[in-house]
Amino acid sequence: MKLIDVQHPWFRPLWRRVFVAGVTLGWAVLEFAMGGPFWGMLFGSLGVYLLHQFFIAFDPREDAEK
């Protein structure tokens, strides 16, 4: 079991992937602006990970084969 299953069928629509990655990165910007570098780095790194998984490594055909 993965901590965050980015290949879950719920993430198949593009708008959900954009929304989740955008909220995560937006929260990182908010944390940096409010003076919370630890949380900013945490959410920023999660956002970058999600960007990679959702838009570079995402394979929607993988779920259809199962």
Task: Give a nutshell description of this structure.
The protein is 68% helix and 0% strand. It is built from 3 helices and no strands.
Question: In words, what does this structure look like?
Answer:
- With 66 residues, the protein is mainly alpha-helical.
- It is built from 3 helices and no strands.
- Helix 1 (14-33) runs antiparallel to helix 2.
- Give average pLDDT, whole number: 88
Question: So what's the overall shape?
Answer: elongated
The number of helical runs is 3
Poorly predicted spans: none
Q: How many distinct beta strands?
A: 0
Task: Give me the secondary-structure topology.
Blueprint: H1 14-33, H2 37-55, H3 60-65
Helix pairs in contact: 1-2
Keywords:
3 helices; 66 residues; mainly alpha; single chain; 68% helix
